[in-house]
Structures are given as structure tokens and as C-alpha cells.
Amino acid sequence: MSVHINTENDDIAVNNFRTYLQIRTTQPDVDYASCVAFLRLQARQLQLSMQVIDTVPDKPIVLMTWTGLEPDLPAILLNSHMDMTKIIKEWRHDPFSAYLDTNDQKIYARGAQDSKCVGIQYLEAVRRLKISGRLLNRTIYITFMPDAEVGGLEGMYRFVRTEQFGKLNIGYALDAGRPSPNYDIAVFTGEKCFWNLRIRCSGNLGDGSLILANTAGEKMTGVLKKFFTFRTAEMQKLIDNPEWTLADVVTMNLTKIEGGPQRNMLKSEFVLTFDCRIPLGTEDTEEVHETMLQWCRDVADDVSIQYLVREEQIPPTETDDKYWEVLKKEVEDFGLDIHCETFPGRTDSRHLREMGIPVVGFSPIPFTPVHLHENNEHIETLYFLKGIKIYYNILIQMGNLP
Ligand SMILES: [Zn+2]
């Protein structure tokens, strides 16, 4: 391939990336229709067949297919999501402009790292494979999911339970991970277990001028003290062990307090909501539950826990197979390295993993500070383009595995 064609492909890739980033897909008002239209155009150009699957109205799942020469071999799935998290802080540049700084070649936009980058990188790798006349033995599926940033319950969770998904016969899946600040690419093989719980503290109701016993406020104070003492200890573990990450500790965060409507009355009830994430490999998650229950009982007999979400632990994806070997080799060939990590948050990977499909969160974007869900999310075009080349080589190897 001549230098000229390379440059031309790089321009196409950057333009497509910026166009995709300019589509407003922040939760909760996600413009899926424009995404689908954009992706349809891409699929047509790349001569990939594309289906839009609606398991829930207005939550389209985009599935592109590049059928392999030996379609009975297990397929490779390349997954990313269309939706993005809200903008909460001031940005240096409009987060929907996909501003390209001509000095340092950085593209600023919500979704630049999570996960529109890999979505376009997959497509651009396929474009280059097609231009160079490559054919792969295995079928490649490329999916663009809705609702991943809000748990995927109306996206991947439903998709993996469809008859159609079962027929895809997926042998291995790559999902978005996150950029890596240096040469060592983090590959996410598992996720922490997520619990969302409400603790109900009820007590005597009365006028605001009284001093009553057994009030909801006192109980709430007792519960908060227990949770925050534990939280401080977990925080200390991170300080004492600099090599630890969020994946190694239990996080328990107070995310909501609900109480009565009147400001001069004692509330009969306060309800506290906690977001709780338990490290992968915790031997007995029941013990975590028992501990929290005991804290509540220590405060009062009638303080109760109700779970909004109580996920089970999902075993991590193994790294002793031929797929991992390909990943490692192809990344190393670029002078980079890879290592395993547990993802501290939640991604669509867990829905695939739950179905027994090996899946890793992998974004081949080195030397890039992590701005996932943060302001000034950006990516340097150099590393965006390098990632395309890495996927190109990975696809040739993985797509031809016997
Ligand atoms: Zn995200």
C-alpha cells in the first residue's frame, strides 16, 4: 500500500470518527436514530450486511456481519456502545464539536475514549482489510449497543438472551476497555460485582419542637457512621498499598437520601441508597451482606436492607488460550505490552461473560491519560490511528485461527 493511500485512509478514519462523535448520544436523551443512519452508511461503504435489532422500542442494537470463508468456525465479536455519559463539568472545548486541536492533534469529545473510538477503529480496520483484499476464515460481527452506560439491561442484557444471538456462535469477543497512560495496555478480564441497596430507618413521628426518642434521624446517623467507618478503612488500604487499584477494595458510597416532605416535622422514615462494588474473587459475598445487616441491627432491630440490584460474581475470562496469545503478540509487535485488570465499573462485557463467552475489555490506545466519564475527554489522532493498525493485525490473526 502506498504512503498516499495510507494518508487517505487516515483522513477517512479521522473524519468518520469526528462525525460519529458529533452525534449527541449522551444519556438520557440519546440520538440513536442518527447513529443508526451514520452506521448504515458505513456498513454500505464497507459492504458489510447490517441489521437493526429492536428488543426494546427506540433502543436499536446494530449488528454488522462480515461472513468468513469458513462460517462454521466460531465467530469474533467486536463490541462497542453508542450511548455516552452525561456532561457534568466545564470543558475546554464543546464536547459535541469533536474539536481537533491542530497543534497537538488531539480530538476532544464525549465518547472519544468511551467508546466511539473503538467502534470506528473496528470499522476502519475492516476498511483496510477489504482494501488490501484480505479475506478471513472466521466471521466477524461488529455490534453497536444502546444503553451500556445505564447498565445495558435494555441493550446487551436482552440481546444475549435472543435466539438470534445464540446462532452467532461467538468464540471470542473484544469490548471497549479504556486508554492506557503509558505503553502497557490494560486488558479487562473481569468486573467487580455491583450491588445497589436501600436502607430504611424509621422512627417516631412528631412536631419539630420536641425531643423524641427512637427517631429515624438517629438511626440514619448510626447507619451512616458504620458505612463511613468501613469506607475510610478501605480508602486507607488504597493509601497503604500504592499498587492496589479500585478493583481491589470494596466501595460503598451513599448516593441518595430520601425523607419526609415537611420541614418542621420529625420524619417517620429516612431511606439511604448505597452503591456498593465488591472485588472480583471475594470468596463469600454473603459475608459482605451479613456484615452490613449486622451494622443495621447494631443500630436498631427495625433497620432493614432492601436490594435494588444484587449481582452474583461472574468468573473472569481466562487468559491461557490462543485468543489471548494473539492479543499479546500483536500488541507487543507495536512495542507495547498488555496486562490484565479487573474493571472497577460496569460494562456490557459482563452480560457476554455471563453467557459463557470469553470477552476482554481492550482499547489499544497507549500513552493517553484516562478521561472516561470525565471532562475534556480526548484522544490523540496518532494513537487513535495506531489502534486501527493493531486491530488490523489482530483481526488477521484471530480471524484466521483454526
Ligand atoms: Zn463508560
Bound molecules: zinc ion
Helical segment tally?
10
Give the biggest beta sheet.
8 strands, mixed
Give the uncertain stretches in residue-range form.
none
CATH class of the largest domain: Alpha Beta
Percent of residues in helices comes to 25-40%
Net shape? elongated
| Strand percentage | 15-25%
| Number of beta-strand segments | 17
Strand order of the largest sheet: 1-2-6-3-7-16-8-15
Structural class: alpha+beta
CATH fold field value of the largest domain: Aminopeptidase
Oligomeric state, counting identical vs distinct chains: single chain
* Helix-strand sequence: HHEEEEEHEHHEEEEHEEEHEHEHEEH
According to CATH, the homologous superfamily of the largest domain is Zn peptidases
CATH architecture of the largest domain: 3-Layer(aba) Sandwich
Number of domains: 2
Mean pLDDT: 93
Radius of gyration: 24 Å
Determine the N-to-C terminus distance: 27 Å
Organism: Zophobas morio
Keywords: Cytoplasm, Metal-binding, Zinc
Pfam family, one: M20_dimer
Protein name: Peptidase M20 dimerisation domain-containing protein
Structure description:
The longest helix has 25 residues, at 216-240. The protein has 402 residues and is of the alpha+beta class. It has helices at residues 3-21, 32-46, 116-131, 156-159, 163-167, 216-240, 285-299, 322-332, 349-354, 381-398; strands at residues 49-54, 60-66, 75-81, 99-101, 106-108, 140-145, 170-175, 184-191, 193-202, 206-207, 251-258, 265-266, 269-278, 304-310, 337-343, 359-362, 378-380. 33% of the residues lie in helices and 25% in strands. The model has no long low-confidence stretch (mean pLDDT 93). The protein has ten helices and 17 strands. The two termini are 27 Å apart. Helix 3 (116-131) packs across helix 10 (381-398). Strand 4 (99-101) and strand 5 form a beta hairpin. It folds into two domains: 3-191 and 316-398, 3-Layer(aba) Sandwich (Aminopeptidase); 193-279 and 281-310, 2-Layer Sandwich (Alpha-Beta Plaits). An eight-stranded mixed β-sheet has the order 1-2-6-3-7-16-8-15. Zn(2+) 2 binds at residues 114, 149, 373.
